[in-house]
Amino acid sequence: MTPVRLTRRQMLRLGAGSAVGALLAACGGDGRSMLAPIPDTPAGKRAGNLRVGVPSPSRDPVVFANLVYSRLVVLDPRRNAVYGDLAEAVEVASDGLEVRFRLRDGLRFHPDAAGLAAALTAEDVKRDFAARAQAGEYLFAQGIERVEAPDLQTVVLRMRAPFSLLFDYLADASIAGIRSTARYTRVDAPLGSGPFVPATREAIGIAMVANPLYHRKRVPLLEQVQVFDGGPPRDVATAVADGELGVGLHAPDAKPADAGHGHVVTARRISRRMRGLGFSLMPQKGTAQTRSIPAFQDERVRRAASLALDRQVLIALDGGVLTGPVGPAHSADALSDEELRKHPLYRHDPAEAKRLLDAAGKSGLAFTLEGANRPAARLLAQAVEGQLREVGFVPQARLLPVADWELAVLAGDFVAGIVEFDELRTPDLGLRMHVSGGLSGKFSPWGYSNPLYDAAARKVFAEVNPTARAQRSREAQRVLLDAVPAMFPLSAAPDYASLAPELRGFEFDAFEFNESWLGPQWRLESTTR
User: Fold this and answer.
1) Over 50: is that where the pLDDT of 76 sits?
2) Is the pTM of this model over 0.85?
3) Which one of 23, 43, 322, 499 has the lowest number of neighbouring Cβ atoms within 10 Å?
4) CA–CA separation, 435 and 458 (whole Å)
5) Distance, first Cα to last Cα, the chain
6) What is the pLDDT of residue 231?
7) CB-based burial of residue 504 (10 Å sphere; 0-12 exposed, 13-18 middle, 19+ buried)?
8) Distance (Å, whole) CA 201 – CA 493
């Protein structure tokens, strides 16, 4: 884990804390469905068993949920496209307080212990969302005022206030997958209605078989998916090469070796992890006294630090890419690599950095550069320390136990440091870490506040239309970079997967959309392995 150890659900919740804004008519308020046209399903005969190995220890409930449970809608994060899953139409009122879903015909849950597949209706959605509200789950307990089912195919959400992350949440099967009151006999979970039915659970994983009653016609194209989440028998790339696995997901910061793996296909995506260089500007965060250096309040000092950084050297340390405040995994909302490279703040200009530091009267500024005592952070801290020294700063790297550094960052109690974020699930989180309230909504860990940026960010948080939100997101990031933030995003690290060459339809860069929507279209050209 990285020094900001927040779970996926916690990151989603933080992003929701103040994410209320207008759902505009462009999202369907004129009575038209906001859903994108569904692409054609590949032709093929159902066949094959795909074995998937995930990092250990894992038992990732997200993988299970996306293959087993259907949602009202799904979201492709690469294009910001919303597709109907259980819903065939979605309409949003112009004031954002009413969201209406029309369910497809003939929906059914997986068969129960008696072999009966019950109908899935709007009443089931209403009941399940009520259960989630009773359990205190954020969206249903605080975002939605009530759920109505005026008929068996219509679900109406009455919102307490317009909520900008509504569709991001509804598309997440681990948060809003529709569950039955009945349960599987061999797996401890409520029945779902997704493309695969859990068949057996063993110590090393779970086996799922194709759902013959799945509402999307002609899929799944696989007969069976086995997820080995107790740890593959050995290196996942080797296991794929030897035919033991069809997909091997590598642990974060673990790049597969190239040698000896035959025709294994290595898939690479830019992760939702981000690394950056942060400075503490203020001696108080919230109600607590924290460490800081007043010199960092001077924009010239911060700009000098940014110009001292040779980002090409830094991203080469982990094979990553440049990133802006919103990481490139959220490609529609992120600033492009080309734009970042051209931005004045991203130039490597040691001479100008020295001039700015001298003009501010801060040449020789000494401070402690902290970070987590982990291999990746250690290499990054050493490189950043050397580059800052070249222009007249005098940093001293100091690596802390991971848990200690996590607490320091969350409290804003540090002077300068290499910060890492593990799972920026939604694009708004990259923006929120720079607003006056920070991710928590209470204070910025950097003590940074810029009213112009805060105003631009609020427009993003108030816009649920994916295309309009992306445009506003890029505009807000430009405002932030021009104002010189207190945390400079440095790199977004890659993730890797090893794939069997006969596998088709597996789009690693689609994240959960790959499992929840594309999973039924995964197929094997040959089933001889």
Assistant:
1) yes
2) yes
3) 43
4) 9
5) 34
6) 57
7) middle
8) 33
